[in-house]
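Below is how a single chain appears once it has passed through the pipeline. First comes the sequence as given, then the structure the pipeline wrote out for it. We keep one example in the README because the format questions we get most often are answered faster by looking than by reading.
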Amino acid sequence: MQFYSTKTASHKVNLEEAIFRSLPPDNGLYMPEHIPTLSPDFLSDIHNKSFQEIAIEITHTLLSDDLSREEVEHIIGLAYDFDAPAKQITEDTYVLELFHGPSMAFKDFGARFMAALMSHFLARSEKDLKILVATSGDTGGAVAQGFFDVPGISVTILYPSGKVSDIQEKQLTTLGRNVRALEVEGTFDDCQKLVKDAFLDTELNTKFNLASANSINIARLIPQSFYYFAAYAQLKQMGKPIVFSVPSGNFGNLSAGLLAFRMGLPVAHFVASTNINNSVPRYLESGVYNPLPSVETISNAMDVGNPSNFVRLIRFFGDDHLSTKEKISGYYFNDVETSEAMRILDQKANYVACPHTAVAYLGLETYRKESESEFIGVFLSTAHPAKFIDLVEKTLGKPIDVPERLKNLLSLPKRSTKITSDFSQFKTLLISEL
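Resulting structure:
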């Protein structure tokens, strides 16, 4: 499989270079040159497949030029000992729970796959690798867990100071060893810019083998497509069209859904559900992409003003606004609406949701009111509500259960280094590690 840059179509690399380079030198994003479709026989029998079997088939279909089926099976076996169950909320509404992995967030699906895939290639090349990752909340914890103590890989995580939950912060600042956290005085967009600037810096790329574990890396999108197929497998027998509502920040999650769609997954429609950081819903409405500085909300992992994956999102539709709008509806919601949705889910469905999940629920319900067709609606739950325990308990007015793996984190000491959003300081810090 060859991957091309969204800025320079003639710039093409193989899988190994795409995942380790992360960003093309022209600051575009890598996209697969060709998206193969899954066999009709596989899709017709998908309801009889396990999550791991589905993941193996998708990976082999996409990457058979680069990996043997045996290698794919080994990578999937290392990555996944957890599933993505679809739980019923009402007759035609389901929530897809993506928080059953080690960090209890959907980012585990991408981080675990990336760690296994990178380890596979590193074992052949005997190289050391430095991973840089920006996080608005859940990515950092998933990457920290996924790459912890992986031989030949060190991880530097940048997160905005004071803008992640206590548990999220503990997940990325307490492991140590090959995982280091940098607390940036700024927003997620500032963190993301520092990472992007590092990949474009000639001196840093001469001194280090840099890679990213953000959704700018194509190896994050591939595994995130798995759970869309898994949801379809669980709901296929109901015989109705399926609509996915995706809580969206950097838009890697929705881009992965579009990859699944292009591979043949029958999806009637997608809903891009955001908080008031609404660059993409505004684009879908007007055809004009006008990113704005990010604004802080209670759904902090979605506080992204200029989502990196927007270019991928529209590339799946040939950069055509009308084609994009035909398949994706966009809605955005403020904190008051989000809190009310959390209470509605608790009171009417006995379901405790994190604020990001509540935004996805709101998007689905808004689309349902506007749609004249019948469908199964699936809203994605991206994190366990206990990761936002103070907010959730205050909103619902009651205590919630906290899994032991999260509860134990709260007593561990935080270890992070504070830096500004100035790139020269970040660069000096990286070079000082030599």
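The first helix runs from residue 15 to 21.

See the next section for the split statistics.
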